[in-house]
Amino acid sequence: MSLHLTIPRDAGALAVGADEVAAALQVAAMARGLELTVTRTGSRGLYWLEPLVEVVTEAGRIGYGPVTPDDAEGLIEALAGDGAHRLRVGRPEDLPFLKRQTRLTMARTGIVDPRSFEDYQAHGGLEGLRKAIEIGPAAIVEAVTQSGLRGRGGAGFPTGIKWKTVADAKADRKYIVCNADEGDSGTFADRMLMEGDPFCLIEGMAIAGIATGATKGFVYIRSEYPHAVAAMEAAMTAARRGGMLGRAVLGSAHAFDMEVRVGAGAYVCGEETSLLQSLEGKRGTVRAKPPLPAHKGLFARPTVINNVLSLATVPIVLARGAAFYRDFGMGRSRGTMPIQLAGNIRYGGLAEVAFGVTLGELVDDIGGGTLSGRPVRAVQVGGPLGAYFPRALFDTPFDYESFAARDGLIGHGGIVVFDDTVDMKRQARFAMEFCSIESCGKCTPCRIGAIRGAETIDKIIAGQDVARNIAVVEDLCQTMKFGSLCALGGFTPYPVLSAIRHFPEDFDVTPHRVAAE
Amino acid sequence: MQAYEDGAYEDWNAERAAAIIAAGKDREGPLLPILHGFMAAFGYVPEPAVPMVAEALNLSRAEVHGVVTFYHDFRREPAGRHVVKLCRAESCQAAGCERLADHLEEKLGIGFGETTPDGRVTLEPIYCLGLCALSPAALIDDRVVARLDEKRLDAVLAETLR
Ligand SMILES: Cc1cc2nc3c(=O)[nH]c(=O)nc-3n(C[C@H](O)[C@H](O)[C@H](O)COP(=O)(O)O)c2cc1C
Ligand code: SF4
Ligand code: FES
Fold first, then answer.
1. What is the ipTM of this complex?
2. Which residue of A46, A109, A173, A185 is the best one to mutate when testing the B interface, meaning the one whose CB has the most B CBs within 10 A?
3. 3-class SS at A39?
4. Are residues A202 and A129 in contact, defined by beta-carbon separation less than 8 angstroms?
5. Whether B55 contacts B25, CB under 8 Å
6. Per-residue pLDDT tens for B102-113?
7. Going by C-beta distance under 8 Å and a sequence separation of 6 or more, which residues neighbour residue A377?
8. Terminus of chain B with fewer CB atoms < 10 Å: N or C?
9. Is A160 in the pocket of ligand 1 (CB under 6 A)?
10. Phi first, then psi: what are they for A397, rounded to 5°?
11. What Cα–Cα distance (Å) separates residue B60 from each residue in A166, A275, B50, B57?
């Protein structure tokens, strides 16, 4: 008898023992004389079930998880028989967590073998690129514009408009730069996509190249992601061999090739101009705009700089048409957003849904509330520069404008859940401290203001002159918001002010005041 | 990259440094790849390498120094034989990483940013490993570990810090 299993090689699965599980299953299969084939995939994003082992059957894949090496023998025995086992979760597609999702960008992640160009094509890969070659640059830009796709990296700028600017620019050389810095806490969708479906990103970048006339692409990946670096490198080699990259992309008249570059542990290098500085081999300080990167970007050439998810969404937009994509979503937020559920959460993972689902549905229904079982008290949406929302704002629809209207941001779509043990003054302090650690140093409000902010919050924590010091922090936040060159200094006020505004009780009740009463 | 195999480093030697520079210098934007090359070979960016790169790339020493010191990854001194990086960003905070931070400081007898007197372990914070759905997480040498509590952390340390 022979068995075919899939086991993720995604960093999240590895971090909870996927390699050890794979090895133990091999040993157990050998002991029973079973022939075992294992395909290493990415993760489906059901992280509470990782390592999630799936067995390939005629009725589809059946999942078991979370599997430990100790479960290997029993699992192999079950798989050799009728498949019944206490870790059996059934077909992953039938789990409520996945059933409620609309996977467009992340459709193949966790399903295909990320090292296999053949598998990619067998699952619909290259359809977008073929279409792009067929319709040509102007029609590609038009399709991306019509799809309503906005940058998934945080700012939400329309991708089609950015591409058009670069397409219209005249230059001897143009670049496509993929921003894979993903420094926000609570975000991991870029990593998952690169590890689970790297050809999709390559396809998106090649389409961007054809659309704008750029012949060279760079993927700037943060150094904290060595597994993503390895997956991208392997996929690029296979793509080159398969004729997807090189002098004639899929045999067309378009040339496009790309390279991976590794960051060096600076959060600010996720900011686009700082990233370009870093790619050029300089300190990652932020450049003033204008000139826009679209006019004068990498090595002073017109440059498209897009987030991983923005680029990886383009293939499906072209393959299925702009209208298909635009029909998902609400208001000016079109299509789907890979939302990342993290922190103290029961069902942590990746939930790609059409824009418009409420924050409460995401945290309570899809995410299942806290892992600790205690009440959810605060959620931070949009990374370290995002606001903290209390339960009272759980009716906020997940879309760019609705969050902005409530002084928040969706950023890269990370949601970090905190239970009622959280101390919001400490979270406010951390935001200031993080800004001071990661500041590029170019402007005073950010470089000095953040240090002053952390010191002042320390005084609040110590119970000194609380009301006056809160006023100082609020004033500092105004200065940072309006006096900073980029969003690192400019958005740090979001977590700080939202903590003060929505959780005032954490700032008022101090030992000092209690003692004075 | 952040994590290097234990014991994989070479002692400083100028020839090796020159080879790393030669291999990287014709790339577009060569400085970061070359500095990563030094990190991979020596475990840090040795001082005598700075003028060599400056000369090869036609930069001033101050410029190269400025880049080396800007990025958190580039060390100017070798680290301990093992490097433990505990994630202390928001998602891991929400899942209790600060308790683990105290536990590590106590267990290793050092603070964050320090190396044990015997040179065995360097303890550092890191801000997000992208394992936030499995918080708290850490990087121990080149091994990612997540869903940590004190017990699991101790077990992983016992396996890795030999
Ligand atoms: C401090 C800071 C950090 C950022 N980090 C990232 C990041 O990690 N990934 C990303 O795609 N965009 C990041 N951005 C946004 C980028 O500057 C830029 O808007 C984005 O890469 C554009 O791509 P998009 O239009 O596809 O979103 C960051 C911005 C700031 C101010
Ligand atoms: S706000 Fe901070 S990070 Fe941004 S440019 Fe100014 S100093 Fe640099
Ligand atoms: S915040 Fe710790 S892994 Fe992301």
1. 0.96
2. A185
3. strand
4. no
5. no
6. 999 999 999 999
7. A390, A391, A418, A419, A420, A422, A503
8. C
9. no
10. -70, 145
11. 33, 22, 9, 9
Name the token pair of A201.
């990103």
Summarize pLDDT for A84-124 with one digit per residue, the tens: 999 999 999 999 999 999 999 999 999 999 999 999 999 99
C-beta A183 within 6 A of ligand 1: yes
Rounded to an integer, what distance in angstroms lies between the CA atom of residue A465 and that of residue A65?
Answer: 52
SS3 content of chain A, % helix, strand, coil (to 5): 50, 15, 35
Secondary structure of A336-377 in HEC code, one letter for each residue: EEEEEEEECCCCCEEEEEECCCEHHHHHHHHCCCCCCCCCEE
Q: Which two tokens stand for residue B15?
A: 């020839």
Cβ atoms within 10 Å, residue B11: 10
Helix (H) or strand (E) holding A299: none
Q: Does any CB of chain B come closer than 8 Å to the CB of residue A145?
A: no
CB A243 within 8 A of CB A133: no
DSSP string, A257-292: EEEEEE--S-GGGGSHHHHHHHHTTS--PPPPSSSP
Of B1, B70, B131, the CB nearest to A223: B1
Which tokens belong to A389? 């929302």
pTM above the 0.90 mark?
A: yes
Give Cβ neighbours of residue B61 (< 8 Å, ≥ 6 apart): B50, B51, B54
